[in-house]
Amino acid sequence: MSYIDAAGASGIAVYEIVNKGKIARDRVTQIGEMFENMGVILSAVVRTSDRGRKGTRYFLRKHGEPVIGKGGRLVVV
Question: In sequence order, which residues have a C-beta less than 8 Å from that of residue 51 and are 6 or more positions away?
């Protein structure tokens, strides 16, 4: 949760949590699903650049719904 909170409105990608926390990807996904089911976070499959790959990002609900633009790009307001 601390990684997601520190990321702010732009959220944090699953791979970033895996790399920072040295936690297995499947475990990060399980924990993310648990927090999403509890209503604490939102997840979205987005890209952060025009040509980047799409990936799952987690966002705290207190920052509101993530805005996703054309082609699945995350729009940070």
Answer: none
In three-state form (DSSP H/G/I as H, E/B as E, the rest C), the secondary structure along the chain is: CHHHHHHHHHCEEHHHHHHHHCCCHHHHHHHHHHHHHHCCEEEEEEECCCCCCCEEEEEEHHHCCCEECHHHEEECC
Joined tokens for residue 1: 């949760």
Cβ burial of 70 (10 Å; 0-12, 13-18, 19+) is exposed
Residues 1-18 have pLDDT tens digits of 999 999 998 999 999 999
Q: How buried is residue 49: exposed, middle or buried, by Cβ count under 10 Å (0-12/13-18/19+)?
A: exposed
Provide the mean pLDDT of the chain. Answer: 92
